[in-house]
């Protein structure tokens, strides 16, 4: 049975990846989920799998060298999928040091632990071991409005926020380990993800939550910043395929072919909510574009991101399956069906529960 070590598995993308892997492989694999449970980590995301015999949760900080080394010493880890990261740009502008600590030093800790566990006396590595570092398209900087301009794996890095700079730094560490030690790894750089379990500080769940509550819908600047949107399950599939079919030491861009302006996203959510809400639902009455409120632009706000996933399609056969019109309806339905989850997250009650639970151990 192959053993996967997933860091940040209680977060948005990590938990969706774990669900995807168990749906695909069931009892053929074992997953160890390591998460420190910051505000963005929520074990409610994994209630459906927590009692599986082939699933283990360990609360640990990826910067804790002793804790991470112990996990490798006590388990024969075959695959590492490294999601754990601070990821919200606005928070990085307020407190950059946290992002450097987690994203850079945490990645170094993970690399060193895997290298120590997998390296043979002759400097080569045990057969079949792989480390996948999950990164972002934001490391490439900003594109202009030319619809023919895209990010490729060869695009020079040009990060503009503390968040993207910390992720670019972590990417460079992984590249250095691949080059220096021939460490068995890959890097994926993905576009904006959306779907179930996303923390509601991010655009799509924030707009859904605020719209249903009749609150203002904040939009930065003129609302014309463009992002490429990727349904999270498509991303999970891409990660699995890179682990199984990707060439070692390579970087693969993972994009959704769903470029949208931020204002388009907000209006689409309002329109979709109007479609799915019953006429008798009182929340439908206040749904209108009047809720949109333009606010001062974010510092260093990149204008446009657009991923070219040509390489991953040509070499591995992956391409996005969920177009935005379908994905946003699935996402809204999930939040409708899981309003208790949303209320628990926005209240912060889950954080207090975890602190109490783990402080007693």
TrEMBL record:
GO biological process entries = nucleotide-sugar metabolic process
Where does the record place the NAD(P)-binding domain?
A: 5-331
Q: Which Pfam families match?
A: GDP_Man_Dehyd (PF16363)
Instruction: Write the Enzyme Commission number(s) for this entry.
Output: 4.2.1.46
Principal EC category: lyase
Does the keyword section mention NAD?
yes
Cofactor(s) it depends on: NAD(+)
Entry keyword annotation includes Hydrolase: no
UniProt lists the family membership as follows: Belongs to the NAD(P)-dependent epimerase/dehydratase family. dTDP-glucose dehydratase subfamily.
This chain's protein is named dTDP-glucose 4,6-dehydratase
């Amino acid at each position: 049975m192959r053993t996967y070590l997933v860091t940040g598995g209680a977060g948005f993308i990590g938990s969706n990846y774990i669900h995807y892997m168990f749906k695909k492989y069931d009892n053929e694999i074992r997953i160890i989920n390591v998460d420190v449970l910051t505000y963005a980590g929520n074990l409610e995301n994994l209630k459906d799998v927590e009692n599986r015999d082939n699933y283990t949760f360990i609360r640990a900080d990826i910067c804790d060298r002793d804790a991470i080394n112990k996990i490798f010493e006590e388990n024969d880890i075959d695959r590492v999928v490294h999601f754990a990261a601070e990821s919200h740009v606005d928070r990085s502008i307020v407190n950059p040091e946290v992002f450097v600590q987690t994203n850079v030093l945490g990645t170094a800790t993970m690399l060193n632990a895997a290298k120590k566990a997998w390296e043979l006396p002759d400097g080569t590595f045990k057969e079949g071991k792989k480390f996948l570092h999950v990164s972002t398209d934001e490391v490439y900087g900003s594109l202009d409005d030319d619809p023919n301009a895209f990010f490729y794996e060869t695009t020079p890095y040009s990060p503009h926020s503390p968040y993207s700079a910390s992720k670019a730094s972590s990417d460079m560490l992984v590249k250095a380990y691949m080059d220096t030690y021939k460490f068995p790894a890959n890097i994926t750089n993905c576009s904006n993800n959306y779907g179930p379990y996303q923390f509601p500080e991010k655009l799509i769940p924030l707009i859904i939550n605020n719209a249903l509550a009749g609150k203002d819908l904040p939009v930065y600047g003129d609302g014309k910043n463009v992002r490429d949107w990727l349904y999270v399950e498509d991303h999970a599939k891409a990660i699995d395929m890179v682990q199984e079919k990707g060439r070692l030491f390579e970087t693969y861009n993972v994009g959704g072919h769903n470029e949208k302006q931020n204002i388009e996203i907000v209006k689409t959510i309002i329109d979709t909510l109007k479609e799915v809400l019953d006429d008798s639902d009182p929340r439908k009455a206040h749904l209108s574009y009047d809720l949109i409120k333009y606010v001062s632009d974010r510092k260093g706000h990149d204008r446009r991101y657009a991923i070219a996933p040509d390489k991953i399609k040509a070499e591995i056969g992956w391409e996005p399956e969920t177009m935005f019109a379908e994905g946003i309806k699935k996402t809204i339905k999930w939040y409708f069906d899981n309003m208790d989850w949303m209320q628990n997250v926005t209240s912060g009650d889950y954080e207090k529960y975890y602190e109490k639970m783990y402080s007693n151990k």
